[in-house]
Amino acid sequence: MPAPNAVQPPAAAPVTVPFLDRDHSILAFNERVLDWAHRPDVPLLERLRFLCIVSSNLDEFFEVRAAPHLTALQNNDRKGLYTVESFTALAAAAHELVDRQYALYNDDLMPTFEKHGIKIVSHGERHLAQRRWVKDYFEREVRPLLIPVGLDPAHPFPQVANKSLNFIVRLSGRDAFGRENDIAIVKVPRVLPRLIRMPDKVSDHKTLFVSLSSVIRAHLAELFPGREVGQFSQFRVTRHSDLAVDEDDVQNLRTALRQGLQHRHYGQAVRLEVSAGCSEHLSSFLLKQFNLPAQALYRVHGPVNLVRLTQLVDLVDEPRLRFAPYKPCYPVQLMPGQSFFDQLTQGDVLIHQPFESFDGVLAFLREAVNDPQVLAIKQTIYRTGADSALMDLLREAVRRGKEVTAVVELKARFDEEANINWAEMLESIGAQVVYGVVGLKTHAKMLLVTRREGRQLRRYAHLSTGNYNPRTARLYTDLSYLTADPLLTADIENVFVHLASQSRLPRLNRLWLAPFHLHRKLIEKIDALGAAAAQGQPARIVAKMNALTDEALMLALVRAGQRGVKIDLIVRGACMLPAQLPGITANIRVRSVIGRFLEHSRVFYFRCADQEDLYLSSADWMNRNMLRRVELAWPVTDAALRQRIIDECLVAYLHDGLDAWDLGPDGTYTRVGSGDRQPGHGAQAALMDRYGAREGAGDEASWI
């Protein structure tokens, strides 16, 4: 069923709004993440972890966002959203961010690690005993997996996989057949660890490592007997990796996606990383092979894949260099040992993750699986991970004879393979598996349990702002909502029926559903507050989300602000709406909070005089979420729960004096507490203290 037409704002904005650039806003978000790697109050291993997070984010940025800009450059496009100028500006910003990363890595982090007796030892720094150990490791573990490829007409440039480590080598002399082919490529298998800890016998009582690239570099000559190795460099190419499948033109979406996954690693090249010392001859040769312009070349002073340095974080056993362990408490509203079904008949339950444990959600599903009175379980699956206790419970539910329906989103970016595997597993044991609606992604997070109670059937549900992955539920802030509200659960049942049958959706009682109602309802809500403010009534909007890029919603906010509504937006990542712009957004403040945990919850608060409404949602305020995805927003009708969400998710973040950044009218972010202002308390730290006091220390958690 096609998505409905885009909602148009009721009236044109009184002035032109100079929206900020989305891609530059994404890079600005990563600048804020990188700040954590600079902060002296952050433990050293965690600083390195945040540096790696930035590299991981940049990888995804290039894989998903860079190709249209690059294509515009190659086509010499000068008009439109993607142009020669947009590519040039974006490349300059990305280069600056990467340069900052490696400067921090070389000038601050690595010297500080060395002060703690932890070091990645280069070939030139290794003494004789260490070199002997490295040579033995190379011969035993590495060399058997390497096959150098000399380039000639019979051996063209090999296929190089996305983000893989490789070496390019320039050789002198002649090969075994008397030819002067001078370029060879060495592809490094992904199965090899990128960091290897040297044993105590050669570590001089320190924690010493060697990088795989250094091991190979030191023994390149041995891979080419009879030839002399001259110039060489490690290199890594990033490729466009967003799968594109024409759903209207395929018979089987699952099969088409699986075939597409085979080609993902070899898509259009968009970035080339080489060692800083790579010669012009070799870098030019590589740029030509990958059809890339000079601006796509990144010369780095260190490993070409900083992401893999997360291995160092995992390999170093130094608790003092990590965050103090944090263990979430069991959800405070739940009574251990008491049936969920009994508790939910008394009222709704809120779980604030990761401060409260996701185990409460698993316990709800586990009870449903084990309860003989439960007849059916329906659930959406977006990202559950490759190893999921939740999926094991669904499998057990099928084994116990319950009707299990899983709406599996096969197109969840970079989780396609895991979701295909789960879909095939569930189908093979008899679950009903559907893939949502053609042309839309099912991003809503909902779980519905139908239970026989006497002569009637009663429904119980779980909704979430964005998590059914037990691992990331420990690392992301999200809100889980358990309810037996008959109106809300009836809505959820109708949405599941709609997704499975694609029949017409009946009028919903409480849910706002994208792509049908959510966009329109939000704009209507914002405009209604603007009208009330124009009549002299106090009006307030506070909205917390991951991204704000939808033009119609931004224009609605501008209209409301100009009519007197006081608006605070807590936007973690990309935000295209400039704040505090005189005459345009003077009543709108925007802040971003970057904490130990990844901010992920979506909360929308509207107040007019004494009337307040609060919605939780799976959707960011982006055009794709509003018009090209199945998303939910639902009201919190319980006054106590509503106040708890206001206090913990809105007020605390508006008063964050440690991890918050305020957006200015020119698109720049200023960290709260910088300059003459003294830093205050962080919202996440306060919530950890509040909930941690209930449970005590436990497993470590931070977001990557």
From TrEMBL:
Keywords assigned by UniProt, alphabetized: ATP-binding, Kinase, Magnesium, Metal-binding, Nucleotide-binding, Phosphoprotein, Transferase
Gene3D superfamilies hit by this protein: Endonuclease Chain A (3.30.870.10), Polyphosphate kinase middle domain (3.30.1840.10), Polyphosphate kinase N-terminal domain (1.20.58.310)
Binding site for Mg(2+): R383, R413
GO biological process: polyphosphate biosynthetic process
Modification note: An intermediate of this reaction is the autophosphorylated ppk in which a phosphate is covalently linked to a histidine residue through a N-P bond.
Annotated HAMAP family: Polyphosphate_kinase
NCBIfam families: poly_P_kin, PRK05443.1-2, PRK05443.2-2
Protein name per Swiss-Prot or TrEMBL: Polyphosphate kinase
Origin: domain of life: Bacteria
The enzyme's E.C. designation: 2.7.4.1
Family of the protein in this entry: Belongs to the polyphosphate kinase 1 (PPK1) family.
Domain Polyphosphate kinase C-terminal: from-to ranges: 340-503, 511-678
Function comment: Catalyzes the reversible transfer of the terminal phosphate of ATP to form a long-chain polyphosphate (polyP).
